Amino acid sequence: MASDSVASADGKRAVVTRFAPSPTGFLHIGNARTGLFSWLYARHNGGKALLRIEDTDKARSTSEAIDVIFDGLSWLGLEFDNEPVFQSERADRHAQVVQKLLDAGKAYKCFATAEELAQMREEQRAAKKPLRYDGRWRDRDPSEAPEGAPFTVRIKTPERGETVIEDAVQGRVKVNNSEIDDFILLRADGTPTYMLAVVVDDVDMGVTHIIRGDDHLNNAFRQLQIIHAMQGIEDGWEDPTYAHIPLIHGNDGAKLSKRHGALGVDAYRDELGILPEALFNYLLRLGWGHGDKEEFTREEAIALFDLEGVGRSPSRFDLKKLSNLNGHYIREADDARLAKLVAERIGEKADIDLLTEAMPVMKTRARNIIELADGAAFLFKERPLEITEKAANLLDEEARERLAVISARLKGETDWTMEALEANLKQHSEDLGLGLGKLAQPLRAALTGQTTSPGIFDVLVLLGKEESLARIDDAQAASASKNQ
């Protein structure tokens, strides 16, 4: 694989980031934020954002899960600068690197059996020592092993000194090399470990900046051992810049879980009715900030994003805040676009033109597409309407009598506009000495079958004269039948 890393005009390596999800389920909200930060950092620096699918777990990696990742990233508007790299297709290259390490004496074959390793760990527990491989095959000749015995390949890590990482988020972090054991590169079946495959792929893809969750910080110390061991064996094995981002917690400070809203990106779209720009903005602000600014366009995010703005403390995911932010973006959204999204939920009976006309009044209080669809559903209900119990309670005998008078007045109305209808019914309420609400409540129940809706005059205009009058007459008849 040719490296994507190139020199910039000032001689420095141009920024190349990567997002590397595992297709073992949905695109988790935390992974999506990592992908967003990696993508933004590359875009901000005029570099490349690459995508790799870490699908070496064949039992759990499915084509359906891969499609879900692609779909979620596309919905968020994260377009990458390469065809996706599939880690499972690179096993030969991973093995090639291991062979080079063996040839250079920087890795070795370990013939320890599972039983021997289990006994080793038991003895370490009894002695209250750290559980790590003791290097028993580090300096032994492979000829000492029984012929044909299975083996793993382990790296020879330095026994003295320390490994230091100048992390772009966490700052300077270090570990004594004596704490890093000779970890496995190739399993006994010849398959590469995660630790090996990630490093080889990052180097071959020319990745300069690795932005990921801080649960991978310990992995970085091990992965650097492979990089350092390969320096002098092959060109291109340069230390990357690491940026380990604190994980997302729930709003109670506990580890993020489904009860906090830790769903897949597709669920926020399909089950919660969230707009992509709302989720984009919310994820951006989870752990990153720029002064007091709360809302960012995509262009602003690219222009302003830097790693200096990423905090060192875990951010807290608040579904209510996301919902409120989504409501803002719904109010800002194009009416025709919202109408199309709502129509997809309502089904074949939806009228796009009518929905587009309705959006200005429908979207004022909606927090998500589901609420929009539920609120607009009355427009397409077939008569006679199914009326909720609360709405039916408003249609008593007195209300039915008032509806009869309202129906007669509206039948004579020749100007079916909000202004004319409002003037008509306000005059009627004044004639009766009643507040307009006393007329609007049963009228809303008759027209929508519910107790909540947009303004009653908006409802009348959207339904039109013929449908409105027919629904009022239906409600009168149903109420009369109920009270007989």
Structure description:
There is one protein chain. The protein contains 19 helices and 12 strands. With 484 residues, it is mainly α. Among the domains are: 335-380, no CATH class; 389-483, Orthogonal Bundle (Arc Repressor Mutant, subunit A). It has a 3-stranded parallel sheet with strand order 1-2-3. The protein has a 3-stranded antiparallel sheet with strand order 4-5-8. Helix 5 packs across helix 6 and helix 17 runs parallel beside helix 18 (456-463). The chain is elongated, with a radius of gyration of 32 Å. Residues 5-11 have low confidence and may be disordered. It comes from Altericroceibacterium indicum.
Q: How large is the count of helical segments?
A: 19
Considering DSSP H and I runs of 4 or more, what fraction of the residues is helical?
40-55%
Write down the CATH class of the domain at 389-483: Mainly Alpha
What is the global morphology? elongated
Strand-pairing-aware structural class: mainly alpha
CATH architecture of the domain at 389-483: Orthogonal Bundle
Q: What is the distance, rounded to the nearest whole angstrom, between the alpha carbons of the first and last residues?
A: 82 Å
Q: Per CATH, what is the topology of the domain at 389-483?
A: Arc Repressor Mutant, subunit A
Question: Could you list the spans in which at least 5 consecutive residues all have pLDDT below 50?
Answer: 5-11
- How many distinct beta strands? 12
- Largest sheet descriptor: 3 strands, parallel
Strand content: 5-15%
**Overall pLDDT confidence:** 92
Strand order of the largest sheet: 1-2-3
Radius of gyration: 32 Å
